[in-house]
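May I ask you to comment on the folded chain given beneath this request?
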Amino acid sequence: MKSYYFLIADLTVCLRTENDSTDIESLLPSFGVFAVERPSAPLLLTLTIDSKPHPTPERRLVRNFDTGNGNTAVYQLTDGGYEYMISNIYGDDCCLLTANEQFSDCHCALRGDWTMRSFGLNNALMLVYAFAGSHCQTMLVHASCVALGNEGYPFIAQSGTGKSTHTSLWMKHIEGTELLNDDNPVIRILDDGQPYIYGSPWSGKTPCYRNLRKHLGAITRIERAPRNSIVRLAPIEAFASLLPACSSMKWDVAIYRNLCNAVSRLIETTPVYTLYCLPDEEAARLSFGKLTGKEK
């Protein structure tokens, strides 16, 4: 058994392989900058790649959901754990994943060629990270996030609304702006109550994998509009705006309660806005001014 360690949002993920010939670096190219020799941070979860060939007989289908690049079937196990069948866009089964109730001890069997195995393993790690993280005020957020100085600014929206377009406008027109992650940054509330946003190995179609931490400056939801304006949301509106952007399982009482509590704590310290905008420079400068307090 060989172990690999990755530091993601200052939490350790351990990946174990039964077969020493399994090429983890090849299967997980986006994880390279997150790899560490020895864990120096708390262990979040262990995922073991083993040769378990068949699904668990005693399981109950919870739901199937479309991930945008495939399908995932979710099953509840009798011991409170879960089983997932992760399939690609062609309907090919790529990974059978099992997890205990806390998502701290997980196992997966990979199937198919290299492309299928890489797809399955990446998606399995993203799932278990999101759900294990719910137990320590850590959220995987569907957002495009820029960094400016020591602050991070994620933009959330429904797919196709223009998150990446807006962050690209920041990088073009706001000096010093860098992309932190373009699809799934991690937000974590530390023990001192302060929220931080981190790069992650999951960045959608944009290869932006940065092992960086920034203080969370503000969160902004984007809506397309015929003119540019921005408003700060009241706490209830902020909660309703942010919650759907976080990876969760509403049917799991403990995970969903943890997420709701974390979001509630987050909006106590972090302003949340809605930006009604066009895809133009003015919109970028408007949000920059409001979010950073440098509005003219």
